[in-house]
Amino acid sequence: MMLKLANLTHTSYIIDNVVVVDPVRNTSYPGHVAIVEGRIDAVERGRAKEASLPIYDGGGLHLAPGFIDIHVHLREPGHEYKETVASGTLAAVAGGFTAVACMPNTNPAIDDPSVVEFILKQAKIAGRARVYPIAAATKGRKGEILSEYHELVAAGAVAVTDDGSPVASAEMARRVMEYAAPLGIPFIEHCEDMAASGEGVMHEGFYSTKLGLKGIPAHSEEVCLARDLLILKSVRGARFHAAHMSTCGSVALIRRAKEDGLPVTAETAPHYLCLEDKDLVTYDTNKKINPPLRGEEDREAMIEALKDGTIDCVASDHAPHAAHEKQVEFNAAPNGSVGLETMFPLLVKHLVKPGHMTLPQALALITNKPAQCLGIPGGTLARGVPADLVLFDPNEEWTVRADALHSKSRNSAFIGHAVTGRVKHTLVDGVSVLPAKVGV
Amino acid sequence: MNTRKHLLGLEGMSAEEITRLLDTAESFKEVSERPVKKVPALRGMTIANLFFEPSTRTRISFELAEKRLSADSVNFTVGGSSVSKGETLRDTAENIQAMKVDMIVIRHSAAGAPHFLAGLLEASVVNAGDGAHEHPTQGLLDMFTLRERWGNFDERKVVIVGDVAHSRVARSNIHGLVAMGVEVVVCGPPTLIPMNIERLGVGVESDLRKALDGADAVNVLRIQKERQAAGLFPSIDEYARVWGVSADALKHAKPDCVVMHPGPMNRGIEIAQDVADGERSVILDQVTNGVAVRMAVLYLCSGGAAIESEEEQTTTEAKTTKGKQVA
Fold first, then answer.
1. Helix, strand or coil, per DSSP, at residue B318
2. Known catalytic residue: A41?
3. Mind listing the pLDDT tens digit for each residue in A9-19?
4. A 190-229 residues with CB below 8 A of B?
5. pLDDT at B307
6. Cβ of A324 under 8 Å from any chain B Cβ?
């Protein structure tokens, strides 16, 4: 008689009757997982035989390493009405994420060790997903003075960025890369030439012309990326990660940089894989995102870049905004969409179902690969690692509804979107962190 | 049958519907020529004119159209966006709806603001210009004016000159004229021609004289001096020399080429003085026709049946007679 996972109480146990999805080995098979003291002890094929540990029934669900999202805006401190560490990590575990890296465009910015410590404390109190703070590359994200990277890293920061804004000057971008290099942390760039973006609110192209909205040209992203890649060439030991890539031109730049052997990694976001500028014809402010939803050829290039590894991983750019902020004229609305709870089923729907890649390959984009980009642990089923696991049904079809989201804000670009794949259980350190009401 | 509740733009409007609108406007134009310029078509209806952007001509034109249809109308005018004023557009609109308004005419600097209201409110929404998106009643009145001259739109070429990138007038004209089978060419400094506009079915030519070759009409857009400040063209002088519509430039067009301008004009800049006042200019006809076109739009969006045949016109006559009695 097997125990029900919904009633999980042990810290040493076996989850039997699952399909193990191993993104590192790019394979999946029926099997079972033994967990001892909150760590993975064994992952084996077939059904569990020995009964020295209590056995829980996985119910035929798929089991994979907990998902990792390296680009999340938790909004705390400073914008708690949009999201908090508690609400954001609840949304994370509801979406199958056991670890998130949070961006420093808070108030105050994450440019001081005390802010890093505060966020880690809030995460501990919340007790859901692991949180890896990303520090501001410059004080106050103003692009003028370097933040104290040594102290920030000692407090727990895993990378530096001024995300939300680019590091505007080439000189400062160089200093950021140089200063971060010996610490082994990547500089994550929000690639945007602010003058090129101007007052733009959507991708510049036929649809911006048609809708009468100011355009953000593709080269706004590309010139900043190209500049940083040129700087990267001359900074020894630097690591560079390009955030939320959205254009086919950027893909070409990264592809060449990788061919040249530069230490560059890159992420894109689910909305650049499933939505386009033409989806803005209703002026839906939930689809107002920066970088903006691009054209069809950009979307297709992004999928190709994930297939050939040019783009390393997918991150949600989870960007909560309150309803009253989004229910305004398109020009006046802030940029961003929540994404933690829709990322996994969107990847199944738009990458796995059409046959672009296998399920283990798609999961690698949100497990071991993003972990490697940031140099954080997780994303594997290796023996001895913390049992951060997700169990899901890869075939369940559902429709995204605003009122079913756990994030404090419901500004999803995907409301009404039909998706495939549903998270059923999320475990951190072998303990269930997903409240029962999830999965409405 | 007309089932249109809102008029948000001319994009996607069929030739048939445009024709119906213009036909209806023709009946209403006659009303404005009577001593008692009033029909009871919208009696009992309340219309709010929400102008979030300064406009004299369009607002007065809508107001007159409403009054001549016997609607009760109120005006709400604010400078700048609702956001800067402290109240959101949503709150403003919901408050006005709470006072039981049947129709809302909105002018707003943000593209899509009318769509936002249409999704939010029960009332009919008529777009009186939204950002650089559309100005459908202007597009219709321009087409009405052209049809009045030409009789139909067969084998015609219209050139739109100026700041196409920032022009809602250009977009509405393009959608409407292309639907009617007119050849449309846009012309202006490349910095003011928006990306991929040819995909709307128009030609693009930066040389004004080439663009005007064989043109039956030229629609001259107002040039905003702030575009020069934004670095989109070097000087007003150069603009006037290269893209200003002069008698000399018009020699390249057909001899009876009609000259239009949505107003207000910068005389001597985008349009030469003698062209603006010349015999080919229909600029004041556009203004006259604007009232009739807006009457037709308000009438049809309120659920009124299109006026097409003689018989139905008689019905209007009957209503008019009644209107006279009321007046």
1. helix
2. no
3. 999 999 999 99
4. 204-206, 208-215
5. 66
6. yes
- On whether any CB of chain A is under 8 Å from the CB of B78, the answer is no
Q: Percent of chain B having pLDDT more than 70? A: 90
Partners of B197 on chain A (C-beta within 8 Å) are 206, 209
User: Phi and psi at residue B78, in whole multiples of 5°?
Assistant: -135, 150
User: Which of A202, A210, A286 has the highest number of chain B CBs within 10 A, making it the mutation to test binding with B?
Assistant: A210
Assembly ipTM: 0.89
User: Which positions 404-433 of A are in contact with B (Cβ < 8 Å)?
Assistant: none
Instruction: Give which of B137, B118, B206 is closest to B176, Cα–Cα.
Output: B137
Burial of B140 (C-beta count, 10 Å sphere; 0-12/13-18/19+): buried
B81 CB neighbours in chain A (<8 A) are 329, 332
Q: Please indicate, yes or no, whether the overall pTM of this predicted structure exceeds 0.90.
A: yes
Domains of chain A in start order, with CATH, are 3-64+385-432 (2.30.40.10), 66-374 (3.20.20.140)
Backbone CA torsion sign across A352, A354, A357, A362: negative
- Those residues whose C-beta lies under 8 Å from the C-beta of residue A8, and which sit 6 or more positions away, are A56, A425, A427, A431, A432
Give A213→chain B minimum CA distance, Å.
Answer: 6
Residue from the list A209, A212, A283 with its beta carbon closest to the beta carbon of B116: A283
CB-based contact, B178 to chain A, within 8 Å: no
Reply yes or no on whether the pLDDT at B81 is more than 90: no
3-state secondary structure A270-318: CHHHHCCHHHHCCCCHHHCCCCCCCCHHHHHHHHHHHHCCCCCEECCCE
Distance, in Å, from the CA atom of A370 to the CA atom of A363, rounded to the nearest integer, reads 10
- pLDDT, tens digit (0-9, with 9 covering 90-100), for B10-44: 999 999 999 999 999 999 999 989 999 999 999 99
